[in-house]
Fold this protein.
Amino acid sequence: MESERGASLAEGVHPLEVWSWAMYDFANSGYTTVVITAVFNAYFVAEVARNAPWATFAWTCALAVSYALIIVTAPVIGAYADARAAKKKLLVVTTVGCIAFTAALALVRPGDLWLAVLLIILSNFFFGTGENLIAAFLPEIARGEGMGRVSGWGWSLGYLGGLVSLGCCLAYVSWAQARGLSAADFVPITMAITAALFAAASLPTFLFLRERSPAAGQSGNYLKQSVARLRETLRDASRYRDLRRFLICIVFYQAGIQAVVALAAIYAQQAMGFTTKETLALILVVNITAALGAFLFGHVQDRLGHVRTIAVTLLGWIAAVLLAWLAHGPLLFWVAANLVGLCLGASQSAGRALVGYLSPLSRSAEFFGLWGLSVKFSAILGPVTYGLVTWLSGGDHRLAILLTGAYFIAGIGILMRIDVSRGRAVALKVKETPAA
């Protein structure tokens, strides 16, 4: 195991530093697990929006606005981070922002629709921007042939972080419900718990993670330089056609993933009749299978190949969607949910690793900004499609979940046209010639 770890890390990278990088996945996963997936989304629909016919659509629209803001800013932020070697400084800002606005969600009471919408937009914007920045460190700490393995370590630890946050919240919710407290009483406290755990668990990242890439820009107008670098990336996109094709692939298959992640608790409660406690227990177990999926497939990916690994996980996603659509009782739905967990950890880890594998090292933050753009666009497309279907169909969540399967089918079709060897060769040729 020690030799395998050493072969995966870039020259001069200590295992402590890789652990501190992965700890950020541990830290920020509590936000997606508790706020976006398990607790606040269902609270928003049932309590804040009072189960209005448009409630699910309103939730997806709030997320869409935050992702649209990330789409607009991510490429420029990534280019700026590369030009000024500022990934870590920017990561501090985005982390503080996400923690602060997550804690502020504790102020949201039933009926406070616009306050909830504003805080979700802001907290998710800072979360998504930080996610891009931490991912851009991957090519600095891992060798090309070990990126799948190292990425898998991060994702698996991340799902354990989600598990810890969710477990703490489940313990509190169980205590609160046993004393007759309502969601309006205990959901705000879970937001404070999530923010506190995020703050504590992210400290190792800022203490031990180093920024190795040198500044690539000149002094002067930093924004202008960043925009110029972004324009050059887009203009030269034909040089990275396999990376570009994979980014398009990500838009489709991540649309399905983002719909499931953002609406899991809503589907469990609205379509399956789960209580808050049952939903938390379900997603807690799913986080365990997601951690296993990320860890195991991280090792398999470097042997099986990036494309084959992602294709296997997308087939698993299609099977999970069909099972969820067919489920009318808890047993089949539990099977579908755990298959989702296994595929979620694997597909997220494999996708991030393949972007790093196909990206020039000197422009990693910029290309991971484009990766973030693709993921965030899919996070608009998938959930809004789901929300719109439920609104137009009079609340038919089963039809909405079934239609998300089409995004995974489209993703497989694009994936089969990617030549990883060719894309990697192009990335290696330009790694020593950073843009000015």
